[in-house]
Design goal:
This protein is mostly helical. It is built from 13 helices and two strands, in the order H-H-H-H-H-H-H-E-E-H-H-H-H-H-H. A two-stranded antiparallel sheet has the order 1-2. Its main location: membrane.
């Protein structure tokens, strides 16, 4: 993999596209460089997506001298919103490959630099202090505000329950094993915030890595027993993505993204099928650890997906029509009797 292309300064989407063409070379068609909308090309063009994700998945990617990682880093740090969106588009592959390789303790300074830049942006979005994201839930001990109580409450109203959607983010300048799940989880939360603008292929990549991270089979696979996929395929030499640790700080944003893919507005049956498989694999992974929040979230997600798949029966008015005819006949008889 060539890494001798000098980095070019990036100030706009056109600069980013030109720099990417210089890095990938013949992997991109010549028409890409003359695209009318460089920002849209970086985000949605299938040739760009295939070339970048293929390079990120390639052997030796993610090293400290990886020019593609340098491009992702510089493009995001340019503080151009459309460029930041284009970089987020590759978060599933970036995080997926990184987490699978990190368990083998390979040096991945290039991946880590990009992830830390995204994490720093997430911290800055919370006012620089990395405050927790919370939501207030109604307390059922309080009387309903929509009804008049027959007996005035004697006690003071109970305080609202506060649920933590995302714990506080502490600034980190280095990646350590103890911080890895939190940093990658925060990056996935950043990705989730822009998920509605992500192309279909990006969401498909994420669901693919979710299945690998879970490291289990669903009931549609050949066997129902959990297994650990091998790290490499001795026959083809293709890398197999590893099962990874999934603490709640990483598991929660993963489930939220899978839920959007499964229950969101997308009309792609392929995406929904892939998301359903990911949800089931995550559920079986949760059953291994017996993590109550993870079990509840994944089981609820599976039940919701089954409810969506069930067709809604068409209402039948045949019985109502017969009843109306009978009522009309009775009314006619009553009127005739009175006359």
């Amino acid at each position: 993999m060539p890494n001798d292309v000098p980095p070019q300064p990036i100030h706009s989407a056109k600069d980013a596209l030109d720099a990417l063409a210089g890095i990938l070379g013949g992997a991109l068609p010549g028409s890409i460089a003359t695209a009318d909308d460089p920002a849209d090309t970086l985000l949605n063009d299938p040739d760009v997506a295939s070339a970048v994700t293929g390079r990120l998945r390639g052997a030796g990617s993610g090293a400290g001298n990886d020019t593609l990682c340098r491009w992702l880093y510089d493009a995001f740090r340019a503080n151009v919103p459309e460029l930041q969106l284009a970089v987020l588009r590759f978060v599933p592959t970036l995080a997926g490959v990184y987490m699978c390789r990190a368990v083998s303790r390979k040096p991945l300074a290039g991946f880590e630099a990009v992830l830390l830049a995204l994490y720093a942006h997430a911290v800055a979005q919370r006012g620089g202090a990395g405050e927790a994201e919370t939501v207030s839930l109604p307390n059922l001990a309080n009387p309903s505000p929509y009804h008049d109580a027959k007996v005035p409450p004697k006690a003071k109203p109970a305080e609202l329950d506060v649920a933590v959607l995302s714990p506080p983010l502490e600034p980190h300048g280095t990646m350590r094993a103890t911080r890895r799940a939190r940093i990658v989880g925060a990056v996935l939360e950043l990705y989730h915030g822009k998920l509605s603008r992500m192309p279909l292929s990006s969401k498909m990549d994420f669901c693919e890595f979710c299945v690998a991270w879970a490291g289990t089979h669903n009931k549609a696979d050949d066997d129902d027993k959990p297994r650990l996929p091998p790290a490499t395929d001795a026959v083809t030499g293709a890398e197999k993505w590893r099962r990874v640790p999934l603490p709640w700080e990483l598991f929660q944003p993963v489930v939220r993204i899978v839920a959007h893919c499964l229950l969101g507005p997308s009309r792609s049956d392929e995406l929904k099928a892939q998301a359903a498989r990911a949800a089931e694999c995550l559920y079986w992974r949760a059953t291994e650890t017996m993590d109550a929040p993870a079990l509840l979230a994944t089981r609820s997600l599976m039940r919701l997906s089954q409810m969506v798949e069930e067709p809604i029966p068409e209402p039948s008015f045949s019985g109502a029509i017969e009843n109306m005819a009978e009522l009309e006949a009775m009314r006619a008889n009553i009127l005739n009797t009175k006359n």
